[in-house]
């Protein structure tokens, strides 16, 4: 997922017999590219994508999924046609003829920053300065078990493989953490990738740094390989370009996280379950909240608007969304219409204006702040009315961009500071929703915001 690859081999469509030589490359920033000495789109007018392309390569069997046809070119000195395809997903280790048959019961993946957030080690060592002897002891860390829902259980395992370089008597020892999801029955790989994404988004929130899967391995008892005299489940790898990946994202140590694992360790299995349930209920809100991390060191008015939209949506879904009771509102509208004499066209216009019975943005923000008091919010919002006025005025301007509204809208560093406060309020709402108390994230908010 985060390493470049190059596989040379032969390629064909599932129902074809003829193989075409070509090379598959994958770059985590730009995705996959298949260059063929030929093409599956011989007609100039045929620009169709190919659902599945199969490969026999120097690295084993490969299945390419959703292959977009980009171009073909003919080399001038040889007359050879080069076809170029861009696969959206790459499955290494098995041939699948249809996307619907790509089903598994298990997945193992490594999210960026997970091990650093857990901050666990099985090492005990004695390395003293100017000492003539050293010692290193490792004891396996107990796995962390959890349950996503009645159809999926999981656990986090810890590994510490050792590699030895005999030429230099060198020993390399590195600990890491992996997430395992086990389904009660086979599920399509797209559902697995969805669950992998949701889990890594939780790590993004808790570490305050964009997370993404570094490595994904799919397993199932139906896909096996021979190891000596034994049959073992294949390790089938999945690659795809994720928009979350960037070299700019950093590993963060325990003091930098918005929530420390050590403070919520006992509740973590339940927090995972709560997170998946909440994600399914509030996906658009969470996506708006986490979109910030893709480029968290850059600011624009779009980020301010994302924070406001997320807060409004969260309030709409979790609080009373009627300004006055609906029966009273409907009676009020009827009374107004009965007291005016207008043309049919003007009546239509009036009806279109008498449909708003939702709370104002200021009312929504006040209710959210009242219900999410913590040290950071209290420190940042000393004047509630002033904060609500600035947020409303700025939202109105960046929605309509009129000269009249521009005078009251915040810009530059002041708008950035207001956005930071909005995000703190949103984080507070979501963290509480998944079962994390104020005392576990107040310091993290102060450090990061």
Describe this protein with a few key phrases.
18 strands, 449 residues, 13 helices, 35% helix, alpha+beta, six-stranded antiparallel beta barrel, two-stranded antiparallel ribbon
Residue stretches low in confidence (pLDDT < 50, at least 5 long) are: none
Distance between the termini: 30 Å
Q: Using DSSP, what is the number of strands?
A: 18
Q: Please tell me what the overall shape is.
A: globular
Mean pLDDT: 92
Count of helices? 13
Main sheet record: 6 strands, antiparallel, barrel
What percent of residues are in strands? 25-35%
For the largest beta sheet, what order do the strands appear in spatially?
1-2-3-6-5-4
Rg (C-alpha, Å) = 28 Å
Tell me the helix content: 25-40%
Summing up helix and strand content along with how strands pair, one would put the structural category as alpha+beta
Task: Give a short overview.
The protein is 35% helix and 29% strand. The protein contains 13 helices and 18 strands.
């Amino acid at each position: 997922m985060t390493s470049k690859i190059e596989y040379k081999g032969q390629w064909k469509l599932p129902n074809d017999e003829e193989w075409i030589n070509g090379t598959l490359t994958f770059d985590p920033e730009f995705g996959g590219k298949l260059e063929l000495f030929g093409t599956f789109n011989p007609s100039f007018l045929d620009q169709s994508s190919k659902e599945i392309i199969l490969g026999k390569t120097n690295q084993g069997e490969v299945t390419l999924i959703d292959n977009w046809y980009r171009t073909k070119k003919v080399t001038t000195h040889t007359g050879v046609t080069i076809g170029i395809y861009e696969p959206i997903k790459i499955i290494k280790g098995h041939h699948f003829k249809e996307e619907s048959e790509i089903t598994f019961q298990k997945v193992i993946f490594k999210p960026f920053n997970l091990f650093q957030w857990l901050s666990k080690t099985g090492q005990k060592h004695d390395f003293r300065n100017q000492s003539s002897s050293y010692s290193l002891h490792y004891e396996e860390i107990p796995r962390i078990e959890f349950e996503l829902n009645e159809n999926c259980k999981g656990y986090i395992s810890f590994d510490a493989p050792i590699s030895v370089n005999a030429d230099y008597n060198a020993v390399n020892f590195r600990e890491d953490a992996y997430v395992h999801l086990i389904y009660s029955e086979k599920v399509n790989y797209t559902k697995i990738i969805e669950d992998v994404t949701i889990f890594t988004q939780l790590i993004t929130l808790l570490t305050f740094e964009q997370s993404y899967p570094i490595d994904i391995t799919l397993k199932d008892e139906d896909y096996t390989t021979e190891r000596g005299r034994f049959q073992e489940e294949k390790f089938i790898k999945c690659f795809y370009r994720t928009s979350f990946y960037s070299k700019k994202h950093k590993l963060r140590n325990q003091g930098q996280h918005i929530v420390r694992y050590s403070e919520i360790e006992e509740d973590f299995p339940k927090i995972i379950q709560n997170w998946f349930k909440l994600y399914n209920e509030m996906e658009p809100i969470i996506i708006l909240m986490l979109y910030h991390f893709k480029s968290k060191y850059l600011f624009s008015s779009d980020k301010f608007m994302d924070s406001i939209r997320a807060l409004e949506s969260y309030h709409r879904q979790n609080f009373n969304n009627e300004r006055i009771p609906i029966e009273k509102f409907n009676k009020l509208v009827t009374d107004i219409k009965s007291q005016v004499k207008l043309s049919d066209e003007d009546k239509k216009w009036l009806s279109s204006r008498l449909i708003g019975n939702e709370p104002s943005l200021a009312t929504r923000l006040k209710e959210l702040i009242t219900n999410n008091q913590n040290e950071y919010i209290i420190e940042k919002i000393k004047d509630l009315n002033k904060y609500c006025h600035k947020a409303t005025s700025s939202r109105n301007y960046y929605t309509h961009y009129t000269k009249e509204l521009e005078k009251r809208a915040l810009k530059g560093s002041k708008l950035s500071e207001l956005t930071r406060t909005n995000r703190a309020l949103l984080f507070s709402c979501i963290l509480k929703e998944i079962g994390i108390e104020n005392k576990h994230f107040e310091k993290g908010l102060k450090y990061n915001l």
